[in-house]
Structure formats: structure tokens, C-alpha cells
């Protein structure tokens, strides 16, 4: 199993990354909480990884911290929650806010995330309550003051289109993703900033 990658960030199109490790390019899927913290392209990067082996694919998921990966691993143990949905959860809500939702039994906030209905939200609360009993928090904040990726000069894609593509990849319907983005002032903003604002508005809707 691959537990960590240390190499050079070659490309980034949320939620997919390409990391060059000694000439081998690893395709990695990462939550937005990690992507916000990535360096510029062509810069060194270290990711803690979790590998999922299926009959038809071998998928690698990358995280900025061990705590983030641990939460991901807890999430995929919940009945009905696979890696893709776990990635969506970590992208749409901070780890500390997720823990708060579980502890406060706040299903209403969880159902705002794509792919989570009332039953799944209730299941998350019930099954995650004991697993998060000793959560100490503060490790994975993705507030607007946190450090996030620097736009590289080689990135020429329209930030709005890149943000829209990322939201769709995370499970939002194209019309829904467009509505979130159209409600924002996107002028001069990076794709990460647009995605962050759109995800925040989605949870608060």
C-alpha cells in the first residue's frame, strides 16, 4: 500500500492532482481542504495517502495531514459512504464543523452536501459519534485566512470554468454548481477561492 507521496506537483484540476515522484506520475484525488493548502505547480509537495483497490481500478487519495486522512478512513467505514462521498464531505465542510454536526446531531447542515440525504446524515451522526469522541480539533481549518495554493503562471484555464468542473466532480449538479458560482463576485479570484466560496454558500443555503 502507498501511505505517503513526496514529489513535485505537476498538475492540479480539483479534485485531481498529478504528483511526480522520481519520474513516476501519480494520479491522486484530494479534498478541497487539502487543495487549498497546495504549493504552486512545479513545487515540492507531500501528501499522506490512502489507496483503494477495486476490481476495475486502483485509486489513490491524498491529504495534507494525518488527521484529515484519519477522518477520511473513519467516514468510509460508515455504511453507504464510499471514498467519493467522503471526499465530498471533506471538501464541503471543515473537519471541525463536521465534528460539530455529529456532536450536535445537526443533520440539516449535512444534507446540504451533495449525495447526503436525511437517512445518510442520520447514519453519519450515529456511526461517527463514538469514533469522534476524542476529536481535538483545529488541525484542518480551511478558513479564508489559511494558506492556500498560489496560482502558477502555467495555469491558463478560466478559474470560473475550473471551479465549475470541480464542483461537478464533487457531486453537485451542473445547474446547481452554476447557480452557486453565478451568485458570487468572481472577478480576480482564483479557482480555489471561487470553489471555497461556492461550497460555503452551498452548506449555508
Give a concise summary.
This protein has helices at residues 32-35, 66-75, 83-92, 95-104, 107-110, 118-128, 159-169, 174-182, 191-204; strands at 4-13, 16-21, 24-29, 44-53, 58-63. By secondary structure, it is α+β, with helices and mostly antiparallel strands. A five-stranded antiparallel beta sheet has the order 3-2-1-4-5.
Structure description:
There is one protein chain. This protein is of the alpha+beta class and 205 residues long. It folds into 3 domains: 4-63, Beta Barrel (OB fold (Dihydrolipoamide Acetyltransferase, E2P)); 66-128, DNA polymerase, domain 1 (Orthogonal Bundle), CATH 1.10.150; 159-204, Ubiquitin-associated (UBA) domain (Helicase, Ruva Protein, domain 3), CATH 1.10.8.10. 40% of the residues lie in helices and 19% in strands. The chain is built from 9 helices and 5 strands. It has helices at 32-35, 66-75, 83-92, 95-104, 107-110, 118-128, 159-169, 174-182, 191-204, and strands spanning 4-13, 16-21, 24-29, 44-53, 58-63. It has a 5-stranded antiparallel sheet with strand order 3-2-1-4-5. Helix 7 (159-169) crosses helix 9. The protein starts with a strand and ends with a helix. The relative contact order is 0.15. Residues 138-155 have low confidence and may be disordered.
Amino acid at each position: 500500500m502507498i501511505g505517503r507521496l513526496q514529489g513535485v506537483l505537476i498538475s492540479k484540476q480539483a479534485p485531481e492532482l498529478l504528483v511526480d515522484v522520481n519520474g513516476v506520475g501519480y494520479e491522486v484525488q484530494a479534498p478541497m481542504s487539502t487543495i487549498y493548502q497546495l504549493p504552486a505547480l512545479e513545487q515540492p509537495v507531500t501528501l499522506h495517502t490512502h489507496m483503494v483497490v477495486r476490481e476495475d481500478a486502483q485509486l489513490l487519495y491524498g491529504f495534507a495531514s494525518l488527521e484529515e486522512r484519519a477522518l477520511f478512513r473513519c467516514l468510509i467505514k460508515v455504511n453507504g459512504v464510499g471514498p467519493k462521498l467522503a471526499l465530498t464531505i471533506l471538501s464541503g465542510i471543515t473537519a471541525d464543523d463536521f465534528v460539530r454536526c455529529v456532536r450536535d446531531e445537526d443533520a440539516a447542515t449535512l444534507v446540504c452536501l451533495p449525495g447526503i440525504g436525511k437517512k445518510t446524515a442520520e447514519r453519519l451522526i450515529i456511526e461517527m459519534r463514538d469514533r469522534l469522541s476524542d476529536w481535538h480539533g483545529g488541525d484542518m481549518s480551511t478558513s479564508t485566512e489559511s494558506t492556500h495554493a498560489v496560482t502558477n503562471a502555467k495555469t491558463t484555464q478560466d478559474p470560473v470554468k475550473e471551479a465549475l468542473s470541480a464542483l461537478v466532480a464533487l457531486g453537485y449538479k451542473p445547474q446547481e454548481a452554476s447557480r452557486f458560482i453565478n451568485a458570487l463576485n468572481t472577478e480576480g479570484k482564483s479557482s480555489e477561492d471561487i470553489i471555497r466560496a461556492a461550497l460555503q454558500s452551498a452548506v449555508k443555503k
